[in-house]
Amino acid sequence: MPLAVCATPIGNLDDVTLRVLAELREADVVLCEDTRRTRILLDRHGISATLVSFHRHNEAARTREVLVRLGKGERVALVSDAGLPGVNDPGARLIVAALDAGGPVTVLPGASAVETALVASGLLGDRYEFLGYLPRRPSELDALAGELDRLPHAVVAFESPRRLPRSLAALAAASPERPAAVCRELTKRFEEVARGTLAELAARFREPPRGEVTLVLGHWERAAEDGAGERATAAIGELVAAGIGRRQAVDLVSRLTGVARNELYRGSL
Length: 269
Description:
Layout: E1 3-6, H1 18-26, E2 29-32, H2 35-44, E3 51-53, H3 59-71, E4 76-78, H4 92-100, E5 105-108, H5 113-121, E6 128-133, H6 138-149, E7 154-159, H7 164-174, E8 179-184, E9 192-197, H8 198-204, E10 213-217, H9 228-241, H10 246-257, H11 261-268
Parallel strand pairs: 1-4, 1-5, 2-3, 2-4, 6-7
Antiparallel strand pairs: 7-10, 8-9, 8-10
């Protein structure tokens, strides 16, 4: 039997497909990130199933066990707390291992916070990039903000409510006028899609909101400033010659110009 990778609702429990419900009913075992949360979904749809925990901390050990089950012909379904397993959720290791072992893997699609947020934001385009969760470290976040300032297509990212104010401030510092949307509690009772420029959203979300957040940055055509990179690199050279450490000089010039730190550092060597 194939390993069935099943997408589950991102909020509203009725946003589950008929195929996924049928698979969960027939499965010999359902692997889930949190057995309590999956049980709520199953109870909502009158399904009784054997649940086994499968999360980041036991994924390696569980993968070996599941391969044995699949080898015996058992029917195994894999779910996460929300969305599609393997996309920013546990499951990628098992999926690759099952494919490497020559076993079939079938994917049952469903709700997606990424595409839901992108459409709800109205910031659609021919292309977008998904970043997963934004970096936790301020230095990495600031560097990413500078890189995104030069990225013209839409961007979708996850962020924790607690870190959202810091992240919006960093992104707004690099691209204050870029259109964006903070999508909160998608498909749930208190769903909110706040739209505006990054500067406006940073001012609006000075305090952490409640609920799960998906951030969308819209299509962006930044007016290029001729020679900006060369002038920024030259400024670093002058600061270093004046006795300022190279990393400190790079940090300062990056903040003032919006040019990515790693680009400035390489150019200054």
